[in-house]
Structures are given as structure tokens and as C-alpha cells.
Task: structure prediction
Amino acid sequence: MADTHAGDAFDDGNEDFQTGDAGASNTYPQQCSALRKSGYVLIKGRPCKIMEMSTSKTGKHGHAKINMVGIDIFTGKKYEDICPSTHNMEVPNVKRTEYTLMDIDNEGYVSLMDDSSDTRSDLKLPEGELGQEIRTRFDNGDALKLTVLKALGEEAIIVCKLENEPKK
Amino acid sequence: MNNPSSNINTNNLDRTNDDLHWLLLICGHVITEEYDSDEQKTIPEAVMNFSSEQVKYCDLKKCVQIAQHILQHPQLDLTDEIIQGVSPVTQCMVAVLKLSEIERELCSKGRFEYISVQVAVSLTWFIRRLAANYLGFDEQSYKDVSQTLSVLLGKGSEMLEFLTNYFLSKVVTNLQMWASESDVIKETADLFVTLSIKKESSLIIIKNELFWTLANNVISNHMPIQLINEEYKRLLIKGITCSCLNNSSDEYRLHFDRSIFQILNQRLQSIVESIHTLVEQIKLNNTSKLHCTTALQTFYSENVLSQISTLINSYCGLIEGGSRCSSIQITYLFEHSQQTLQYILDLFDFYHNYSDQVQIILELFTLYAEHVLVYLNENHTKLFYTYVLRLLQIFTKCNYGKKTKEINADEDFNGHIYTLLNCLNHLLAKDFIDFSDEPSTNTTWAPPIRDFDLSVLEINVGNVVLYGLIICLPLIRSDNLLKIPSISLCYYKLVSSLCEQHSECLFRLLDTEQFSIFLSTIKLGLDNYDNEICKMCLETIQSLTLHIIKQPKQYENNEKSKYLEHFLDYLLQEIVTTTTTLSDLFDTLAGTIYTLICAYPNQFYNFLGQMKQQDDNLTSIIDRFVHDIGQKHDYNRKIKISFTVKFETFVTDLRRIMKK
Result:
């Protein structure tokens, strides 16, 4: 079996490519100027989605500074930061994994199965509307797929969708 | 700046840089004009005339020498004595080139404290406009051509080649020096595109080794290209593609194919095949399953996602650049990207949970629909429709019954819907604009895509667009997306074009419930939006009603026809009860009412009868109107126009009576 991962796929003789490996770190550095709106960045230690980016200058003829407003992807809290465009910031590795919902127990823990048929039961239904929607649909007998967001060791269920495709 | 002392008076430096910035802007606005990317600009006539008048005072040879020497010796003295005999326009250009050289030299010596970002922006801006207006200008456009400018910058002049190559080197050094400054990079990328779009300059830069080194760096995403925004990387690839394909030379197309196109395709193929291999291995559920699962996860890391986006973005730049070239080149791009599109659809499926990747792929297909489709022959067109159908299938699968609490998910989703509607609009444009030539003789086509059952749907643009509409409609309604101006405009434009060209598709493919839902969006448009959207809604109703008129027997006692009939009462009621003037819309409104009367005459007379019963004073007006328009209502354009006039009189009289 080919020892395949993303590094091989991007290898066309260019040694400058940075690729993730098994057991990759939770973050990687990126220069501020390369960040973009809707991308991710670590602000005050929290993984945030960048909502706004604007540029200001250090002095009339100075170098650019990037003002960033980000929302914590787990708590929804707003964070702001300013960074010179030449400095590095840490970008969190944000993973999304889809699972089939197998069961919901009395305490709200969900049993999930991934595409490789591995199961887990360590996550709870999210609070609020999404959690209620999942429970209602599951009780109705709908086949559901849940997406779990993971970053810096933290996880949460963020998306629910119906597994069966609509009729064409 | 020649002072070796390390003590810099910052205030003086700032003042100097301020002056330079403003002088660049003033000179730039005086001797050049702004342009957009589609415009071929040339030297402003006033400047040409002025330069012509100055020729008698100028030493032509000196103009060229000064310009050339300044680039080789930035320390060259430019006192009044030296410059005497050089035309004012040349002086201006030479001074700016000198400034550019000084900036480059300071950077190379690490004297960054002297360099201003603002001046770098203004300088690149000036050079960009100079390139657009002056390089290889068309002498035929002028009554009197200035000899100085002709010698310096006319087509085929030695100086033209020299300056063009200099501007290319400016692009390269800017990318190295200013990668972190987005304002400078924006102007730099625009400068590169300007050089690429102009045929004369593109033929010059493509012979320069610097061009191919730049192309290689951009395609490989080497430093410092990695530091710049995706938007500007796309512009660079647009420029590279345009330069390579902006001529009829096979040599450069082959070079482009080897150095750019094939590299991207190979990279894409490698990614997709790796993913497929890992997925297959995981399904086999053998001892290597854990290793494969972990390996597959690497394709979801932020770093790799970013590189996927860069790769797809590169294809976007490629299509944008190709769209500036001949139809032969565009067809060549499509013929060599069939496998590419299939691979990208595989990536669309794999990354369906990642909104950025979804967005960029939707954008790529929209670019193909906008720029490539109009040049494709029938077979290629059908193939492209098949790809779009698969795209729509995957999009449906991934959004069916979706509920999310992800941050900003609604904004991302709105972006997807808008781009999809835009793509569908461009597909429909093929009905109106078709530049395709003979059927392609290319035999290296990819086979039809795998898992889409073509027997389900005949592949034509009406069906494909309607399929897309059927998918988008529930998603639009559930989130009330029509309240967003950009989406509503796109949606109503799409439905009015679709109904104008393919109204029969809606009757054939929508079931009764879907048809009713569709009409409810039309009513929503009439109730809540401005005249532009109202007009599109009225045109939609007209087109659908016309279809019924052409086949009356088929739609007798038909549910869908009954839904459409409601609009007659609704529009007549609106005319009667509204107090606002309808001057902008009146013709379209009258035309729609006429069409509805032709389809549903009985309903029309019922309505008039009810009006007479409610108010006796209206009887004579109504009777006069009925007499004027006659009893027989066969749809006819001429009668429609005369109906509009009679209807206007009727409405005016009606409102006058009802006001009393």
C-alpha cells in the first residue's frame, strides 16, 4: 500500500511546501499579510474565525499593521488583535469530521460512527437550537449526519444534516 | 539620502516622502488617464498635442539616452543643464524612473529606514498607468504624433522593449521587497496584468527569462509568493496566462502547457488520486486502515486546505487570463481541462464541509460558465452541462436538511447560493451569445462522469438551470435569502431569463407544489421589491402565460394554469387600489395584463363584473373599455401595444372616478 499523505501529493520537487503529518501540531505559523477574512487565527490563545481585517499604518509612511476581529469558534466570543504585517501569527488546525448519529442517551451523550465504522460516545448534544433540532429529528426517525469541529484539543458538534438525499 | 550618517531626521524624511507621493499623483493624473481592465487606453490627446509642440525644442537622441542611462546609473545627475533639450514628458518619466531605481538600490543595501510604503504604492500606480497609456500606443489614433513619444514608446521602438522589460523587473522586485504590503502588491499585480493584456508588451515580456522565473515561482507558490493574498496571486496567474496565450505562437502555448498548465494538472491529479487511494484502503478495512485514516486526515489540515484553495484559485486565474485571448485559445483551455473539472468535482465532494473550498470551486465553475461556455461547440457544451449537473447534485447532497451553529455559516452559505445563481445565469447566456465554431476534432476527451445517470435528464441548458433552481429554491426559502439584495437580484434575473427562453421546462419538470412555491416567490417580488425586480417578475408571468396561450388544450383545467390565473385578479386589483404612479412599470404591467386576459378572458370579465357591482359609477368607464378592446383576445404584438394605450386611458379614468 502506498505510503500516501498530503506531503506526497504536493511534492512536485518543491521543498518549500509545508504539509501536515500524522500527529501534527495544533497550530502552524503564518505571516500576518497572508491571513484572510474567513480564515482562522489564534487570538489570545483562542481559535477564532477572522470576521474583519483592515490595514492601518505605523506613521504616515510606515509599514502596514493588520487589525483583526475574530470570533471564537466554540464560544462565539469576540476578540481583537493588531499585528504588523510582517509578523507571524499562529493559525489553528481546525478539523471537521462527519459522523452518523447512532443514538442519544438520557444524559444527552451521543453515539457517533465515522466513515471507517469507528464509534465514539464522549460528546454531548450541543446546547440551544441545534441540540433540540438534533433530538427532534432523531426522535422522528431521521437518519442524521453530524459534523464535529475540533481545534486545539477542544471539540463540539456544529452541524446536523439529513443523511438521505432528496428525490430528484 | 547620500548622507552616510545614520542619524535620520524623520520629520524631514516624512515631508520628502509626502512631497514625492503627491508629485507622483499629480504627474500621474496629468499625463495619464485611468482605465478598467477591458479598456485599451492610449495617450491623452492633450498630452500628445503638447508633446508634439515641444518637439521643435527637443533633442530626440538625448531623450532616449537620458532615459536609458538613468536606469543604469541612478546617481546620474539630472540638473537643468543636463536635462536641457529633453522634452517635458520625457523629463517627467525619467524622474519617476530615477525614483524607482533609488528605491530599489536602497532596498538592496538594506536602507529600509528611507523607504516609504506610501511612495512605493504611488510609484507603482504611476508606472502602471504609464504602461497602460503609453507603451506601444497606437499612432493611427492621432492626427499629429509627437516624434519624441514615437521614438520613445511607439510600436517597434527599441526604447519600448527596454522600458517594458524594466517594468517587468519592477514587478519582480516589488514582489520580493513588498510581499507584506498588500497595497503595493495590489498595484504590482495590476501592473503585471496591464503588461500582459497589451499585445505589444506581452510579446516582449514573454521572451524575458525573468517572466518564466516569476511564472515558476507563482505556480509553485514559492516564497515570497506564499505571503501574498490569494486575490493578487490570481491576478498574477491571469497575467501569466494572458501573456502566454495572447498571440498565435504555438511555441509559447507549448511552453505555457509544460510550465504552467501541466504542473497544475499534475498536482491536482496527485492530490485526488491520493485521496481516492486512501479512501479505498479504508473501505477494505484491513490492517493498514488506521494508518490510512490518519493519512487522510492530513488532507484536512489548515495548511493543506490553504494549498488546495491556492490550487483552485490558480485555475480561476488561468480562466480569467484565457478569457482575454482568442476563441481558439479558450477552446484549447477547455479541451485540456476536462479531466481537471472531473477531479475538481471529486474535491468538491471531499471538501463539502469546508465553506472556503466550496466557494472557490463554485467560483471556478462560474468563471467557466461566464468566459468559456460561449465559445464551446455543441458537444463540449453538453459535457460542461453534465459537470454542472454533478456539481449541483453534490451541493444538494451536502446541504440537504442542514442546520448549523458554526460561526458566520449563514454568510458563507449566502455566498455559495449567490455564486451558484450567478453560475446558472451565465449558463443561460449561451442562448443569447454563442461564438462557437466547428465541432472539435480533439479525441482526447475524458469519458462522461461516473455516477450521474444521464438518462434521468436530457442535457440541455433549460433542464440544467431548472435543476439548479429546484435545488436552490428550498434553501433560499428556508433562510429567507431573498431579503438579501444581491441574491434577490440574481434570482429574479435568472427566473425571468429562464422563463423567457425555457418556460416549457417549468411546466414539464416542476410538480404542482414546486410550481406553486415558485410562483409565490414571484408574488413576493411584486409585493416587496423595487421596480427593477417587479419588472422581471411581470416578464416572468408574461412568459409563463404565453406558453399556456400557445397550448390552450394542454392546460385546460390544469392546476398550474389555475395558479397562474390568480395573477390576473391580483394585478388588476393592484392597479385599481394603488395610489402610486406606475409610469416606469406601466408598459410591462399592461403587457402582462393583456397576456393574462388572452389566456383567461372569462376571469377578466368576472373581475370587471364585480367592479361594476361594487360601484355603479364605474359602469360606463368599464363598458367603454370593453368596447374599445373588443371581444376576441388572440395574442398579438400589435394588439398588445394598442391595448397598452387603451388600458392607460382606462386606468386614468378609473382613478379619477374613484378619487371623487
